[in-house]
């Protein structure tokens, strides 16, 4: 199954040696029956059609979904077109937010502040500990979206849109080393020092990124199986 990665952000220059955002997702989802193509939508590089790949993954970004960048309206159009065409989409952090905004939700800077570092997300069936790095969040979910996970500081931490789109606020693709780099190179002056210090102390917390990777891959592959089955019935 081929997944198109829609890149909406880039690693800080000081951390680029660790890889860029599409690299992290290809590593996270390696060996799960998926192949990948990339489009840098933050530079207005868009696929010609939502059918150019079997599914789509929208990355994180330092940009806000509500900011007036020229690539955001066409990305929202692409999201709505993929939903209408039943092409599966996964969104991570900014991807989670821009999907919610495109589908009628609201994204803004959370008045309660930042969430940084290893954080527990209760999905009902199990709890995932994943790295987080955000102040922006979905403060009002789209009407058709179902909340899958929440935290005390993030009510809409994971959303499911029928069986077509699955989105999460945290970063399963961020390893300890990259989070440590964000704290050092991007955090000062942006995130309160006390939160950075607390996150640093928790960096060795075991993460459930492999389990979330399985969940993401299962979402894509199950959707592909349903589509293939429907096509056979129509044949």
UniProtKB/TrEMBL annotation:
SUPFAM superfamilies on file: Class I glutamine amidotransferase-like
Tell me the domain of life.
Bacteria
Q: Which residues form the Glutamine amidotransferase domain?
A: 72-176
Asked whether the UniProt record includes Lyase among its keywords, one would answer: no
The answer to keyword Acetylation applying to this record is no
Entry's PROSITE patterns?
A: GATASE_TYPE_1
InterPro entries assigned: ChyE-like, Class_I_gatase-like, GATASE
* Keyword vocabulary terms for this entry: Glutamine amidotransferase
Q: What is this protein called?
A: Type 1 glutamine amidotransferase
């Amino acid at each position: 199954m081929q997944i198109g990665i829609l890149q909406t952000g880039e690693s800080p220059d000081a951390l680029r040696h660790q890889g860029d955002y599409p690299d992290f997702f290809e590593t996270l989802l390696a060996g799960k029956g998926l192949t990948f193509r990339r489009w840098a939508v933050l530079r207005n590089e868009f696929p010609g059609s939502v059918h150019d790949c079997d599914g789509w993954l929208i990355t994180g970004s330092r940009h806000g979904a509500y900011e007036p960048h020229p690539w955001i309206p066409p990305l929202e159009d692409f999201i709505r077109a993929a939903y209408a065409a039943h092409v599966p989409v996964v969104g991570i952090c900014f991807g989670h937010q821009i999907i919610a905004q495109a589908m009628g939700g609201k994204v803004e800077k959370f008045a309660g502040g930042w969430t940084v570092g290893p954080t527990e997300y209760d999905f009902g069936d199990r709890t995932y500990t994943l790295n987080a790095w955000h102040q922006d969040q979905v403060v009002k979910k789209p009407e058709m979206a179902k909340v899958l996970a929440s935290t005390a500081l993030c009510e809409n931490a994971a959303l499911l849109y029928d069986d077509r789109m699955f989105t999460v606020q945290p970063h399963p693709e961020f390893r300890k080393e990259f989070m440590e780099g964000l704290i050092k190179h991007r955090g000062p002056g942006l995130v309160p020092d006390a939160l950075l210090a607390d996150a640093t102390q928790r960096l060795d917390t075991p993460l459930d990124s492999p389990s979330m990777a399985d969940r993401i891959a299962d979402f894509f592959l199950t959707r592909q199986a349903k589509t293939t089955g429907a096509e056979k019935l129509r044949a």
